[in-house]
């Protein structure tokens, strides 16, 4: 079958493209913005990428068009598909119909940490010899790809014996497509669902937190009684979701006290920066982790993944050592390099909570004397709409300096955020000005962290190149 994927450079749709190619389909695709790491992965797989949504980019011999949720009515390619009666589906539906049948699906949901937790879980299952399939919203450093079918260690084709082999999917609450406004995760019908946390986000499609909780409740309804819900026991918003109705045994994880229920899985921090911790199940020490990731939030991500492993029969103590070699995901506090004593990081954080927890982990590592400089692009739909504007300054409080990219199309005035940060912040109109400002500001010993969920005009790597050129 020949597929054309609209929105192919997105992290989810790029993963769908990789799975389709691995299953033997002829795959092509188009997108408005194509940038690494997904563009690099797709090119390496030999998938033809076409810039823009010109209907001419869709080959006339395509059997089906898979449409990403970034496209809506009025888009030229979408109108072409409808007007010409082409067969179409969403990425979530395609995954459900072509990959997940017969698999033990483990779905990881939550406002924060989905990508990292999904990757940790896949890595632990790999260490257990399960050879999982996965679809991750980013390129996993340890696998080199964002998605694979899995289930056959010999990589024989065609694949056989996939029944009951695990498939790990990052389960997003964002809507499915222009023709299906349900959250993507309701399509996956997992055996095990991990609920990492829940906060207000996606202000472009959800009016309030209660609307998101309703979608999470719908997701909970799809998990069978023989399965498991692995839930952040510290999160009051998730406790409210479970109170709406729950028909599946629940495993709760956390570091601090739970929300009215005991924690089945706990961590005891051995280092303030989260780089070392003990793992406890039902109050008994299972083992100790020393790994390269930082922050309390990543300890929570690991706990959720470990509890999910336990839920599918993995001996957790036997796979704990694998975390010492875990390399996470590209663009999750990814150290791009160092030059002139300055470390340059690329990070996907785009919500105030994620920004704050990331900086907390880095601050714990560098100490009070180390300087942290943040280059921030408010690019997500919620950020652009100003839904998180009031929380931005507090989330950046641990940075010593902030360069705020205030593009002309930003729908709110960043002056209040800059003002709240006092002399440690400045706003600039474009990426070129941001790089000039950072060059003048950064000095030996600094950690410069670029935070955006988009391409950021290639600023992180451009800045590192400027430093190396002196």
UniProtKB/TrEMBL annotation:
<dbReference type="GO" id="GO:0016874">
    <property type="term" value="F:ligase activity"/>
</dbReference>
<dbReference type="InterPro" id="IPR000713">
    <property type="entry name" value="Mur_ligase_N"/>
</dbReference>
<dbReference type="InterPro" id="IPR013221">
    <property type="entry name" value="Mur_ligase_cen"/>
</dbReference>
<dbReference type="Pfam" id="PF01225">
    <property type="entry name" value="Mur_ligase"/>
</dbReference>
<dbReference type="Pfam" id="PF02875">
    <property type="entry name" value="Mur_ligase_C"/>
</dbReference>
<comment type="similarity">
    <text>Belongs to the MurCDEF family. Mpl subfamily.</text>
</comment>
<keyword id="KW-0573">Peptidoglycan synthesis</keyword>
<keyword id="KW-0436">Ligase</keyword>
<dbReference type="InterPro" id="IPR004101">
    <property type="entry name" value="Mur_ligase_C"/>
</dbReference>
<keyword id="KW-0961">Cell wall biogenesis/degradation</keyword>
<keyword id="KW-0132">Cell division</keyword>
<dbReference type="InterPro" id="IPR005757">
    <property type="entry name" value="Mpl"/>
</dbReference>
<dbReference type="InterPro" id="IPR036565">
    <property type="entry name" value="Mur-like_cat_sf"/>
</dbReference>
<feature type="domain" description="Mur ligase central">
    <location>
        <begin position="108"/>
        <end position="309"/>
    </location>
</feature>
<protein>
    <recommendedName>
        <fullName>UDP-N-acetylmuramate--L-alanyl-gamma-D-glutamyl-meso-2,6-diaminoheptandioate ligase</fullName>
        <ecNumber>6.3.2.45</ecNumber>
    </recommendedName>
</protein>
<keyword id="KW-0460">Magnesium</keyword>
<comment type="function">
    <text>Reutilizes the intact tripeptide L-alanyl-gamma-D-glutamyl-meso-diaminopimelate by linking it to UDP-N-acetylmuramate.</text>
</comment>
<feature type="domain" description="Mur ligase N-terminal catalytic">
    <location>
        <begin position="3"/>
        <end position="96"/>
    </location>
</feature>
<feature type="domain" description="Mur ligase C-terminal">
    <location>
        <begin position="331"/>
        <end position="454"/>
    </location>
</feature>
<keyword id="KW-0131">Cell cycle</keyword>
<keyword id="KW-0067">ATP-binding</keyword>
<comment type="pathway">
    <text>Cell wall biogenesis; peptidoglycan recycling.</text>
</comment>
<dbReference type="Pfam" id="PF08245">
    <property type="entry name" value="Mur_ligase_M"/>
</dbReference>
<keyword id="KW-0547">Nucleotide-binding</keyword>
<feature type="binding site">
    <location>
        <begin position="110"/>
        <end position="116"/>
    </location>
    <ligand>
        <name>ATP</name>
    </ligand>
</feature>
<keyword id="KW-0133">Cell shape</keyword>
<dbReference type="InterPro" id="IPR050061">
    <property type="entry name" value="MurCDEF_pg_biosynth"/>
</dbReference>
<dbReference type="InterPro" id="IPR036615">
    <property type="entry name" value="Mur_ligase_C_dom_sf"/>
</dbReference>
């Amino acid at each position: 079958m020949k597929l054309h994927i609209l929105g192919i450079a997105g992290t989810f749709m790029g993963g769908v493209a990789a799975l389709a190619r691995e299953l033997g389909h002829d795959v092509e695709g188009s997108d408005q913005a194509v940038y690494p790491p997904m563009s690099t992965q797709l090119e390496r797989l030999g998938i033809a990428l076409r810039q823009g949504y010109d209907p001419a980019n869709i080959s006339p011999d395509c059997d089906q068009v898979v449409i990403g949720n970034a496209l809506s009515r009025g888009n030229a390619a979408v109108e072409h598909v409808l007007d010409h009666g082409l067969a179409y589906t969403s990425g979530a539906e395609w995954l459900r119909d072509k990959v997940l049948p017969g698999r033990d699906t483990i779905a990881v949901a939550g406002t924060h940490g989905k990508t990292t937790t999904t990757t940790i879980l896949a890595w632990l299952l790999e260490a257990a010899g399960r050879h999982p399939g996965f679809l991750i919203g980013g390129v996993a450093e340890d696998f080199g790809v964002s998605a694979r079918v899995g289930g056959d260690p010999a990589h024989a084709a065609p694949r056989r014996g996939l029944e009951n082999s695990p498939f790990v999917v990052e389960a997003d609450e964002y809507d499915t497509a222009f023709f299906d406004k349900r959250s993507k995760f309701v399509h996956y019908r997992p055996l095990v669902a991990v609920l990492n946390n829940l906060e207000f986000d996606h202000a472009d499609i959800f009016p309030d937190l209660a609307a998101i909780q309703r979608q999470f409740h719908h997701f909970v309804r799809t998990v069978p009684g023989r399965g498991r819900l692995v839930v952040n026991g510290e999160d009051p918003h998730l406790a409210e979701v479970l109170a709406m109705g729950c028909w599946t045994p629940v495993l709760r994880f956390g570091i601090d006290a739970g929300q009215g229920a005991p924690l089945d899985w706990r961590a005891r921090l051995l280092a303030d920066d989260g780089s070392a911790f003990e793992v406890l199940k039902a109050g008994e020490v299972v083992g100790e982790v020393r790994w390269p990731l930082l922050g309390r939030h990543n300890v929570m991500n690991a706990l959720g993944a470990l509890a999910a492993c336990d839920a599918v029969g993995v001996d957790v103590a036997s796979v704990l050592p694998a975390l010492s070699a875990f390399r996470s995901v590209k663009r999750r506090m990814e150290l791009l390099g160092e030059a002139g004593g300055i470390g340059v990081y690329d990070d996907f954080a785009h919500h105030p909570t994620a920004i704050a927890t990331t900086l907390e982990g880095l601050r714990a590592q560098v100490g009070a004397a180390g300087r942290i400089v943040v280059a921030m692009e408010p690019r997500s739909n919620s950020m652009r709409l100003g839904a998180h504007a009031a929380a931005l300054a507090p989330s950046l409080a641990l940075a010593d300096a902030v360069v705020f990219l205030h593009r002309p199309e930003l729908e709110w005035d960043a002056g209040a955020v800059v003002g709240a940060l006092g002399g440690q912040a400045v706003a600039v109109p474009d990426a070129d000005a941001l790089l000039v400002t950072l060059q003048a500001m950064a000095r030996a010993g600094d950690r410069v962290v670029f935070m955006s969920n988009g391409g950021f005009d290639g600023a992180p790597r451009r800045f590192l190149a400027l430093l190396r050129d002196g």
